[in-house]
Specification:
Strand content: under 5%
Helix content: 55-70%
Number of strands: 0
Order of helices and strands: HHHH
Number of domains: 1
Radius of gyration: 12 Å
Protein name: Cytochrome c domain-containing protein
InterPro entries: Cyt_c-like_dom_sf
Length: about 90
Amino acid sequence: MPAVSEEMVALSPVDRDHLENGRAVYRQACANCHDPIAVRGKSAAYWTGYVPHMADHADLLPADQADLLNYLVAAQLEATPRKQRD
């Protein structure tokens, strides 16, 4: 999964610390069971539905679930060409 970049911070409603925590949650909780999931081609709506379902399996705290979701959406937006974001 990509490192948190300045562009991701600019695209996200949360600060870098929350995005860094979301990345750490992904690496610690999600990557234990899954190969990396490509964020490109997935929508924010996809992640909004997918993360809560999987968070139940990983016993994530609500704050960690929110940080994970914000990280995945920011990574997805960064991976999407600018002209396709709107």
